[in-house]
Design a protein that fits this description.
- The protein is of the alpha/beta class.
- It folds into two domains: 207 residues; 64 residues, no CATH class.
- The chain has nine helices and six strands; from the N terminus they run ααβββαββαβααααα.
């Protein structure tokens, strides 16, 4: 008997657009965020944002969540899924916009909302071998090498004990860097993000609810057509990026290596040695 093939599940970005805005599915996002942040998360509401745009030319894909932490603190969590090469600036813009959108006129600066930016990346952003990165803001002494702390009055004012707790936080999930067996509950979510598969034995919070809700088999014909159109648009976008960014970059690197090899030959080095130093084939150098 052939082993049962895994249930076909929709991608997380499509779920963000169509399913996760429903209160009935808050349990899924609560589970994912609780595993990622390492604390219990309760979603109060999904805020309107660019993520509910449907056109394939939309530049943004974002869901803003107003959540309640286990300590009662209200936090805005911004979940982004995108494929932009200037994504680091996009993250900064996103958190800045969320902060200003939720600042009431005349309200004290101490009331600025806390923003946690969760970014699910299916492309290579920067150099790094890990699949989850966490960024915070801290201040370090140039001379004494100490870390600036909130004083007691500020702690009472902000309801926080550390400076980095009042500034935005960033999580980068580099999905393509995940190449391992899921050994933790968070790994189970990353495994799903990469493979669009949830195994029966997975125990992460909310993940079995996702398996039930994200089944392609439960989609209507109209929903399935819309989902396939969306996937086609992503493939078109990936081809555009590859053609306009990755191929020219590779060609530029190869041309630069060839120029280095030619200079070495002009300085008296043999073609074989020059090609080896520059990292190209001797046949290319002799063309």
């Amino acid at each position: 008997m052939n082993p049962r093939s895994p249930r076909k599940l929709i991608t997380f970005d499509w779920a963000m657009k169509r399913l996760l805005r429903s209160k009935a599915n808050f349990e899924i996002l609560e589970g994912f965020l609780s595993e990622l942040l390492g604390k219990e998360i309760t979603i109060l509401e999904i805020l309107e944002s660019e993520s509910n745009k449907e056109d394939k030319s939309d530049k943004f894909n974002r869901v803003d969540l107003k959540v309640k932490e286990s300590n009662g603190k209200m936090v805005i969590i911004e979940v982004q899924y995108d494929r932009e090469f200037d994504y680091l600036q996009r993250m900064l813009y996103g958190t800045s916009r969320v902060i200003t959108e939720h600042q009431k006129e005349g309200e004290a600066w101490s009331k600025l909302v806390k923003v946690i930016s969760v970014n699910i990346l299916y492309f290579d952003l920067g150099h790094g071998s890990d699949y989850i990165y966490h960024g915070t803001t801290s201040f370090f002494g140039i001379h004494d090498h100490d870390t600036l702390q909130l004083d007691r009055r500020q702690q009472q004012q902000y309801g926080q004990t550390r400076i980095n707790d009042i500034y935005p936080e960033y999580y980068l999930i580099k999905v393509n860097n995940f190449n391992r067996v899921a050994t933790t509950s968070l790994d189970e979510w990353i495994y799903f993000l990469k493979n669009e598969e949830i195994k029966d034995e997975f125990k992460a919070k909310g993940i079995q609810k996702a398996k039930e809700s994200f089944s392609v088999l439960s989609m209507s014909d109209e929903e399935l057509r819309a989902y396939n159109r969306y996937q086609d648009s992503l493939r078109d976008e990936a081809s555009y990026v590859e053609t306009n960014y990755e191929f020219p970059y590779a060609e530029g690197v190869e041309k630069g290596k060839l120029e280095v090899a030619k200079r070495l030959v002009n300085k008296g080095m043999s073609a074989e040695d020059a090609a080896e130093v520059a990292g190209i084939s001797v046949e290319l150098l002799r063309q």
